[in-house]
Every structure is written in C-alpha cells, then in structure tokens.
Amino acid sequence: MAKAPQNAISPSRSEDYPQWYQEVIKAADLAENSPVRGCMVIKPWGYRLWENMQRALDDMFKATGHQNAYFPIFIPMSFLEKEAEHVEGFAKECAVVTHHRLEPDPDGGLRPAGKLEEPLIVRPTSETIIGATFAKWVQSHRDLPLLINQWANVVRWEMRTRLFLRTAEFLWQEGHTVHATAEEAIEETERMVAVYADFAENWMAMPVIVGAKTPGERFPGAVETLSIEAMMQDRKALQAGTSHFLGQNFSKAQEIMFQAESGEREFAWTTSWGVSTRLIGALIMTHSDDDGFVLPPRLAPAQVVILPIYRDDEQRAAVLEYVESLKSELQSQSYADAPVRVEIDDRDMRGGEKKWHHVKRGVPIRLEVGPKDIEKNAVFMGRRDESKSKGIDRAELVSSIGTILADMQQALFNRALKLREDNTTTITNEADFRKFFTSTDEDSIHGGFAYCHFADEESIEPLLKELKVTIRCVPRDNNDTPGTCFATGKPAEKQAIFAKAY
Amino acid sequence: MAKAPQNAISPSRSEDYPQWYQEVIKAADLAENSPVRGCMVIKPWGYRLWENMQRALDDMFKATGHQNAYFPIFIPMSFLEKEAEHVEGFAKECAVVTHHRLEPDPDGGLRPAGKLEEPLIVRPTSETIIGATFAKWVQSHRDLPLLINQWANVVRWEMRTRLFLRTAEFLWQEGHTVHATAEEAIEETERMVAVYADFAENWMAMPVIVGAKTPGERFPGAVETLSIEAMMQDRKALQAGTSHFLGQNFSKAQEIMFQAESGEREFAWTTSWGVSTRLIGALIMTHSDDDGFVLPPRLAPAQVVILPIYRDDEQRAAVLEYVESLKSELQSQSYADAPVRVEIDDRDMRGGEKKWHHVKRGVPIRLEVGPKDIEKNAVFMGRRDESKSKGIDRAELVSSIGTILADMQQALFNRALKLREDNTTTITNEADFRKFFTSTDEDSIHGGFAYCHFADEESIEPLLKELKVTIRCVPRDNNDTPGTCFATGKPAEKQAIFAKAY
Ligand SMILES: [Zn+2]
Ligand SMILES: [Zn+2]
C-alpha cells in the first residue's frame, strides 16, 4: 500500500472536517479562543485580512453613497421591548449590564455594586438605538434618504461557539438607512445584497447565490431578508451576508417620521444590512486545503513572499541585495488596481520550516531565491493553489505577476464554483430528498444544495428538523416556473434551496 | 457703542467657554449625546475626521513595527483582582455584565436572567486580558519584542461627561508591547510618546509638551507614564496621549515569562500607550473660533469645498461644468503627500446659509464660483483661518493649492504655539503661584502653564487642591537645572508644569 501523502494539517478535510477547520486557523495564526467564554482573539495575520476586507467593503459602501458614523454600544432594556418580534429574537442571548462599579467583598475579592436603574444590553445589533437617533435626525423628506454605516463589535450570547463562525463577540458592519418610500427602501435592500455578492465573488473568490429568506428564517422584525449563500467544502451552506427590508416596523417602534412634500407626517421606511468576521470563516472553508489556509490574492495581506536562501554571510549580502531589488520591481507592478504586496522573510529559520509557515498561512506566491537562481537570473516559484513549484525567469515573473495573481484568483473561484455545481441537484419528491440528505456513514460528508419547489414552510418543518436541513433561500434568478411541492405535492410557485447549514 | 460683530457661535469663547465648546460641536455636526447616559453618537462629519486620524496614526504604528490585533471586550472580574493598583484605578467606574439573558417579567416587561458565574467587566483598558493572552504567546526571547496595537471601544463609567473629552464609551487605540529588557521597554515607551507628539504637532497642528507624570498622576500600575500635554484656548491643559512603562508589574500579575538566551525563565517588561476620540475634543478647543470649527488641512475630510452660484438652469449647466473641471484639476494637485480632497456642494440652499454651513464645519478652503468669476477665469476664495475672502486667478489657485493648505496648517500651529507661549511663565514662590491661578473675576479665564521647581508631590497637594491646579508633567527637555521648591523652599531637581486641566 502506498504511503499517504504528507500534509501539513491533521486531520485532513475528509478525516474530520470540523477539526480540520480549527487546525487550519491554528496553523495559519488567524485567531484563538480567549479566556473569556465564547470570545475570540483575532491574531495579527487574521486581523490584517479583516482590515483588507473592511477597506474593500468600506469603499463600496462609500461609492453607493453611505457615510460612516458611530452609535453607543449599550441599548437600554426598554428599547428592546418596543418591537415585539425583535425582542423575541435577541433577548434570549445577550449580555446584560446591571451594575456600574465593583467594590471589595468580605472575602477580599470584588463584587458588583452601583445597581443601574435600568439594565443595559450590549448591542447584539443596533436597529433600536440607531432608530432612536434617526427619529431626531429625520424631520423632512429633504433629510432622506439617510444612508449610514457603522463598523462595530456586537455581542450575542451563543452557547456553542466556533472561531469566526459563531462567537459571543464579533466584529461587523451594520448599514442602517431611512427612505421616504417602500420602493426606495426595497431598492436599497437589493443594492446592498448585490454589493455583498460582488464582494464575495470578486474579492473572496467565493460564488454565492442571492435569494430571499422564507418567513421563518427572516431577521426578527424584517419584512424581507435577502441573503448571500455559499457552499463550503463539506457541502454545507453558509449565510455570508444579509440585507433586510424592515418596512415601517422599526420606524413605528422608534417613531421615525418625516414631513412629506404633501405636508403630511409619515412613517419612514428603513433597511439594515450586515456582514461580519464570519466572512473569514467562510473564506477558510471555501478555499483552504489539507496544507492549510489558501488566500485569494485580492485579499491577501501579503500576495508574494520572498524567501532568501544562503549559506554564509557573503552569500547573504548578495542574496539580500538581489531580493530587495526584486521586491521593488514586483511592488511597482499592479494587480486589481493596487500595487502588488510583497514581503521578504529573512528570519533565521530552517528553509523547510519557513516555507511551510507561509504555505499554512495561505500566501498566494512564494519565491525562493538562492545564489544559483541569481546566477541564472531566475527564481523558484510556488503557487499556493498548485502543488508543484517551478523555476521562472526573473523578467518574466515581474512582467506577469499581475496576470499570475489574477489567474489564481479566477482559479480559486472556478474551483469553488465547480464544487457547488457538482453538488447541486434538483429534487422533486420526498424519497430523493431523504436520500440526498442522509449519509450512509454517520461521519461522511453528504448532501449539498437541493433546488425544490415547496408550497409552505410550516408543513415541511418536521421533515426538515428530522434531517437537520434548512431552507437557505428562495433564489432571485431563474425562479419563475411553477411546480409542485416536493413534500406535499401542493402547487408551488417557486423553488428554494435546501441544505444543511452553518 | 459699536455693535458687536455677528458670529456664528453663541455664546462666544469669552462669554462662556464650556458652552461655546458644546455649540461648536453642534454647529459642526460632529457628535451628539445619545439616549444612553454618557455615551455619544459620533456623526458622519466627526467620524470622517476620526477615520483620518486613525489612518495617519495606524500608518505611524506600522512604520514603527506594530501589528494590529483584536482582543475580547469583556474582562473576567478575577483578572482585575490580580493587579492591586490597577483594580483600584479602574474598579470604581466600570460597566459590569452579570446576566446573559432577558426574560419576560410579570409586568409585561423584561428582566435580566441567566446569572453569570463570574461577572464580566466591559474593558476600561485591556492590560489584563491582553496580558493573559501574551502569557501564552511569549515563550522564548525569540518571540520578543511583541508589538501589538488594538483599535477598540472602551467604557469607563464617568459621572460627569462631556462630548469627546469625557464619555462613558469612547473609541481609542491601545498599544501593548512585551520586551526582554527594561531598556527596550523604556525605549518603546519613549518612541510611542514621540509618535504621539509628531502626530499632534504635524497633523493636528497642536503644539505639545512631552513629559513624565508624577507618581500621583500615573496610570494605575505603571512605573512611569509619559504624556503629551497641550494648552487649550481657555489656557487649561489637556492630556492628549499617554505612554506607560509598566515595568514587570503586569508581567508578574499575568505571568508573562520568557526563556532568556541564558536559558533562565524571566519575567518580561511591558508597555502600553493610547490615544482616543478625546483628540477630537483637543482639536476643537485648540483651533476653533467664534464662527465654529477650524480643521487643520492635513486632517480635514474635505480640504476644499466648491460652492457653485447660479440663477437659472442655463447658468447652472455652465457653472457646474466649470466647477467639475476645477475640482479635477485641484484633485490632481497634492498636499502632504496625498491628493487634495475636494467636494462640490450643489445642494439647493440659500448661498449665505450654505457658506456658513461649511464655515461652521471648519472646511479649510471655500471657493465660490459664479458666471462672473468664470468670465474672468477666477474664483472667490475664503480661507477658514482668515476673515476676508478674495478673488484669485484659477491657474494660480490650482498651482498654489498645496502651498495654501501647507501655509494654513503652519499658521494654525503658529497661532496655537503663540497662545501657549503668551500664557506660560516661570514661578518661584507661592504668592505668585496663587496670583497666577486665581482669577479676579469668578468667570474670567486666568492662569496658563506655570513652570515651577518642586520638591515633592505630597507636601504641595493641599495647595493644588485649593486652587484646582494639577501637575501636568515633568518636561523632558531643558529641565536639568536644580532650584528650590516654589512652595516649600526645599531643594528641587526638576521643574514641573502646573496648570488647571481637563
Ligand atoms: Zn421586530
Ligand atoms: Zn497595577
């Protein structure tokens, strides 16, 4: 029997996907659990990735007319009480501040003191506190549309947490907008889910499906929730961003009113939309392999790392001079409208260890340069999405680096799209549905995305619960052909995507 | 009697400085109080300013070798207990999370439920939680120095709050570093206070004095605290940034240890340093005048605003075409190594109202352009730091815009420096000290910075309390001549700066 190939991450994806995910994060130095239950520490390499995501998204928000602002981290308990569905959705899992001081206790420790008259909630989302402020800002139709975004931390008291995917505290952005008409608010909701799809596909190289959530899966208080859904390598779905049309629910709860051109005072129409550090989890599960993290070039903190190789001080001087000039030349090239990001790793460390350090962290291009390469005016190049390294002429590398990075970005997208297409099917009856979502072996990966006509959410709920399947969304595109419900046989207007999900 | 000149802000600085400050913030749309006691809403114009500050500081931190990361917002109560001085300093004013759920109460409202085993503190500063993580990250001397920065929100339960200057929640950055030797940690502490001084003087146009805090004014747990101190227009001091040498206090409390080259396990040496949204308060009080906010060009979200003037649609088309091309030309110029930031304000609003809108918001350069200006190929320019507007040839404006902005930046700095120099004195006896810090009229502005030799902090405490004066710092520069204490007559090695302060 042939020896299994040696990989950097153990277990492999096929051996234990959830554990593989944790190990990739650890090997890539992205994040770790903190001493505070459910809260994570985002390490420098993970945070640089988040900064790149933030920068790209922020530019897109500004290009669509939004401005950033900042609102309080605390929400008075009474604010949550105002909107009935919203409080049901968020009261169950929140951090409650009840005191504003600590005092010595008799045992020599500390205890809470200074009880607050009204408890404060650490924001799980900010519709209520931002809405209360918007009620003051919005007076006339001339104040509309009001297009605001906030970058912030939020807290939801999750019992079972997993780094990036579900943590008690996470970082996100939340857009909050106010409009004079339902039409404009719906247009905004659609504009922003399209921005998210653009970011997911063109920056993260992660194909997504845009659709509407069914009533049971909507944001608490929303009239409609649109989302982008992606397939991970274990064929589970991951909701990567949501955009909510809130109708007049929050404007009525918070009294956001404006004087229309007619002179009448009317309730405004609001939206909210958000993506979070969960996107990093999505990125890991979309592209990484059994050697660790794989970064799409467009978001990579370093797109190229140069590893100088030498045996003595004399060689060192020559090699370092060479790689410094190579770095400058590469940086003067551009990819995706920005200078190529290049780093030199000259740490004193064994060559193999150093190479694997960058493989595991997902750097798109590794360049090894030693005295022999310099003689030939060439470098040894490894592309993170290909297993073999190869020699390449220096001038050719420099002139083609932008193309190489673009090619890798596209290759990652194509690979992810192929996985999704290979694991997507249309199902028209319950027997096939059961089979698709039931594994023959308890631990094996099974299922994928099933497109099924369905009549109503409630009647199929028991079946979905049994199989641990959820309705991901009702896709927007190519979904106008009526059919019959796969489970009940009733007439059904639309298909939904069914999948197991994160 | 001559009629007083009409100004945009009422009251004026001389009439009521604290109230003037609030009115400037309101008129410039920078921030407002929120429905949550002590927490502010930072409005878009204020947040854009903060983003510019962040960007500049972040670049400086990265240029000095630091990396960003993110740590939990919560600190377990037991972590605070570990460091005796630190807990004394921060336990008195913190937000305590005691429950993780809300449940319906019998009155139809909500009440906290799900009591936590250990209360959590919303971070007032993160030495303890970051230290606990660093204890894991640092194992060997090869892991040092560890140079980390975090951008975050923090909460201190202040009873008397004032927008930007003192709020329950504020935004800041906190640097946290670990070193193998005391010397390296002290060097880092000094390097970062120098970065703050550079930012204050060269970006904010705010002259500062670098000095060491006396023991009574140090950060709780620090061995030495360095700060930058600035003089506001009411001659009070404002501490604008601090850098702390923490010695081994936190490394011992958190067990941050490393294996030295000798093989011995040693406690590490740590530092921390921070600036916050308080800097915006400092900026307002340094440069603003009785017409509102004055922005130093280098930090201004918009450096130039163009106000097109026209009477009808025909004029409108011609004027807009002209200002668009003017905008492009100006943007192709650069100031302080970045393209000039130009905006056109074409809102439908009376000309005077629109002009004052931008005056109050502090935009450095206003350009008014109407059909007559176009005929002459000229524009009408108003500089925020000068009262008169003047006509200027278009080509001359474009070619000199960088110089004009640089000139204004320098003029603001010079004006602030002159105020400080005019209100700084050396005092050698208690009688003069009392006189300097006692106003003849209860409401008048008085005092300033007094350089005084002093022997020890405790013996002069009653005098300082009586006069509401504090020791700002022991300046680093030109402070080697011994003298005698102004209050006690005892021999004194150094001078300190005494001032009333924010
Ligand atoms: Zn609701
Ligand atoms: Zn302490």
Query: What would the average pLDDT of chain A be, to the nearest integer?
Result: 95
Strand order of the largest sheet of chain A: 3-7-8-14-11-10-9-24-27-23-22
CATH architecture field of the largest domain in chain A: 2-Layer Sandwich
Helix amount of chain A, in percent? 25-40%
What is the total tally of β strands of chain A?
27
- What's the main sheet of chain A like? 11 strands, mixed
- Overall morphology of chain A: globular
Terminus-to-terminus distance of chain A: 37 Å
In terms of per-residue confidence, which ranges of chain A show pLDDT below 50 for 5 or more consecutive residues? Answer: none
Please work out how many helical segments of chain A DSSP would assign.
14
Function (chains A, B): Catalyzes the attachment of proline to tRNA(Pro) in a two-step reaction: proline is first activated by ATP to form Pro-AMP and then transferred to the acceptor end of tRNA(Pro).
Family (chains A, B): Belongs to the class-II aminoacyl-tRNA synthetase family. ProS type 3 subfamily.
Subcellular location (chains A, B): Cytoplasm
GO molecular function (chains A, B): ATP binding; proline-tRNA ligase activity
